[in-house]
């Protein structure tokens, strides 16, 4: 089944924004709720006296679901279209998040986080394939940077909601469910339509996903492996940064303020990086940004207990959170337009694979090294990404055709 109409690529920013405005509003509401859910889960687990390692496992369940959802959600988008897929998956998240408000059990919460991740990857697939189908290569980095800006502003607002004077422990999860329900309204009521979907490629879902990943491996291995490392970065931040701050004796109110301010830094470089990426070699840009993150992470391993912690984390977040946007541009430049949904699914699955590993790596090293272990992991990840980007820049495969 396909969408009845498709949105042609917009030639100017005004017409482009009219095409995607409702989608971006829905996505903003969703990101506020998702960020509140991520942080509230970590803090609630710690308040229950759950060990750090167990908290890391519960949070990793979200990314495990995120990874497995990538195999199946592209079929939902192809079969039912962007609008209905978004609405159905957001409704699933509303239901399972309310389960966290009812029962405080790490085992149940791991299941809830798994289903949450399974559904939300489908929503991200809808959003990213819709956006990438609305723009050509010349504006892709800029539009994706706007998408990332909205992601992080929404995530920051979710942290500030931790300060709501809610008298019952489970009530923040009710607020999360309300936000996900609200996100359905702009998408289902918009008169704009995304690109028309072609018939779903032949083969089973696992085979299609693996085939797309093989194409990414052949055309752009940097996007393939970089997405895994980017997922490690982001999942560690959302899941384990609150735990790290708790180990530094921050109270929940202070953790919410810190996380909110840190996520306000995330959009700062998205737009200039997007424009820079559109006008330069994306792999070389990624090498430079990952080098900067490596240096900042090394400084943070030595300066955790100083007044420089917050400003250095702000710098760290503003640079590290540009990684996925650059990598998505690299992947979509190299693949044909008819594969947008599959490319988005594959990138998100790889991101989720890294997301599953991020909390596990951080919780393990933090159990051994304390709070400092968080940034030791960051040094290893950013150093690996820098090496991969430099290798790609210096020894890249013969250039294959680029697609608009």
Topology:
Layout: H1 13-47, H2 52-102, H3 106-132, H4 137-160, H5 171-189, H6 205-219, H7 221-247, H8 252-265, H9 270-279, H10 282-302, H11 309-320, H12 323-334, H13 340-369, H14 373-395
Helix pairs in contact: 1-2, 1-3, 1-4, 1-5, 1-7, 2-3, 2-5, 2-6, 2-7, 2-13, 3-13, 4-8, 4-9, 4-12, 6-7, 6-13, 7-8, 7-12, 7-13, 7-14, 8-11, 10-11, 10-12, 10-14, 12-13, 13-14
Question: Quick recap of the structure?
Answer:
The protein is mostly helical and 404 residues long. It is 79% helix and 0% strand. It has a single domain, classed as MFS general substrate transporter like domains (Growth Hormone, Chain: A), CATH 1.20.1250.
Note down, in words, how this protein is organized.
The chain is mainly alpha-helical and 404 residues long. The chain has one domain (15-190, 204-395): MFS general substrate transporter like domains (Growth Hormone, Chain: A). 79% of the residues lie in helices and 0% in strands. It has 14 helices and no strands. The protein has helices spanning 13-47, 52-102, 106-132, 137-160, 171-189, 205-219, 221-247, 252-265, 270-279, 282-302, 309-320, 323-334, 340-369, 373-395. Helix 7 runs antiparallel to helix 14 and helix 8 packs across helix 11 (309-320). The radius of gyration is 20 Å and the shape is globular. The two termini are 24 Å apart.
